[in-house]
Automatic annotation (TrEMBL):
It comes from the Bacteria. It comes from Pseudanabaena biceps PCC 7429. This is Anthranilate phosphoribosyltransferase. Keywords: Amino-acid biosynthesis, Aromatic amino acid biosynthesis, Glycosyltransferase, Transferase. InterPro entries: Anthranilate_Pribosyl_Tfrase, Glycosyl_Trfase_fam3, Glycosyl_Trfase_fam3_N_dom, Glycosyl_Trfase_fam3_N_dom_sf, Nuc_phospho_transferase. One of its GO terms (molecular function) is anthranilate phosphoribosyltransferase activity. Residues 95-333 form the Glycosyl transferase family domain. Transmembrane segments: none annotated. The lineage of its organism: Bacteria, Bacillati, Cyanobacteriota, Cyanophyceae, Pseudanabaenales.
Amino acid sequence: MSKEFREFLRKVGSGTHTSKSLTRQEAETATTMMLQGVATPAQIGAFMIAHRIKRPTSEELAGMLDAYKLLGAKVDAIASGKKVLVLGSPYDGRSKTAPVSPVTAIVLAAAGIPVLMHGGDRMPTKEGLPFMEIWQALGLNWQDLSIEQVQQNLETHLLGFVYLPKHFPLAQSIVPYRDQIGKRPPFATLELMWSPYQGKQMIVSGFVHPPTETNIREAFALHDIAEFATVKGWEGSVDLARSRTAIIGITRGDRFERLTLSARNYGFTPEDPAIGDASEIAAKILSALKAEPSEYLNSVLWNCGFYLWLYGLHSEIEEAIAHAREIISSGTAWQKLEYLRG
């Protein structure tokens, strides 16, 4: 048993009236001790559930992010110096709506925007459809790539995927605790924030609850991360819905902009495509890349248009949507997938 970790546990787990938050340094140390197995299984499980009940502060999340930056996978900067768009979606996947992030990333890469994503396998407690199963269904067997090969994909094809079990096994080692405690721990929020990329970037973090967005913004400020966006997307992802208004926060230096976007205002009907298994989603993606009309393609165009605009390729979202449509209809996006398949 770690006596040092026991003090952290006592601090966060003392109850509603007497528990205290950790300092940034304490949160970093506690996270490092969990990742490296210095804390015992009983201590790790107890900390996760106590911290969830207490709710993490932005300072604690900043400290946890310090540990992830220190111990996690690191993707070197690409030679072009282009800003990389890092998409942070929940690792426990999707169970209601069809993900569009993978095809959005392909289209953005075809437009010359480098995109880095990250995730794992099916994750407790939701056990939703993860990105890796979709990549595999598309013929992209990225689960065995080295981190250097991920960087090479990002460098050459402008799209990379960091796979938790392969590239950050220390974080993968604490995944089973999620199943055992039956709840998402604060690590689930951390995964929305973490970026393995070491160069110029813009992080996009999905969220569900407004307090989570506030914590993300404040923790990023503590890390001097000056360019990022938060998206209240499908199931906490960075995918913009069409069935409801998208709530988005954009931070660029000292400037913060709040956006509320309705797909109806851009000519889309308010429908969201339903979830399927990996092969069904892959079929939807292939159909969309062939420009075959569907509600899934409409969601792809809506999301691609937003992200082309967010990155700065267009001053108006309408122009960005038209650009996305051209990338797909011209076959450029399909060709990008073929390049990725090798």
